[in-house]
Amino acid sequence: MSENLSQITKERMIRAVDYAYQKRDFQMFMTVMTHAQTCKQCSKAFFECMRIAQDHLESELI
């Protein structure tokens, strides 16, 4: 069950990062990422969220 909860949390974090990018809401992005970095349960998704954010930023440069 804990693994399933972790997957749900990870998916929600990723959706939040994607949503913040789509809305161009930097404050929301920083709030989500700060939470992911400091929350024990969400920290598992932090590096994947960072990778997704990097992909979004790189797509803007192309």
Walk me through what this model shows.
By secondary structure, the protein is mostly helical. The chain has one domain (2-61). 87% of the residues lie in helices and 0% in strands. The chain has helices at 2-23, 26-38, 43-61. α1 packs antiparallel against α2 (26-38). The mean pLDDT is 83.
Map the helices and strands.
Blueprint: H1 2-23, H2 26-38, H3 43-61
Helix pairs in contact: 1-2, 1-3, 2-3
From N to C, what is the helix and strand string?
A: HHH
Please report the number of helical segments: 3
- Give the CA-CA distance, first to last residue: 41 Å
Q: Low-confidence parts lasting 5 or more residues at pLDDT below 50?
A: none
* Rough outline: globular
Radius of gyration: 12 Å
Structural class: mainly alpha
> Number of folding domains?
1
The number of E-state strands comes to 0
Beta-strand share of residues: under 5%
Q: Helical residue percent? A: over 70%
* Mean pLDDT level: 83
What is the makeup of the main sheet? none
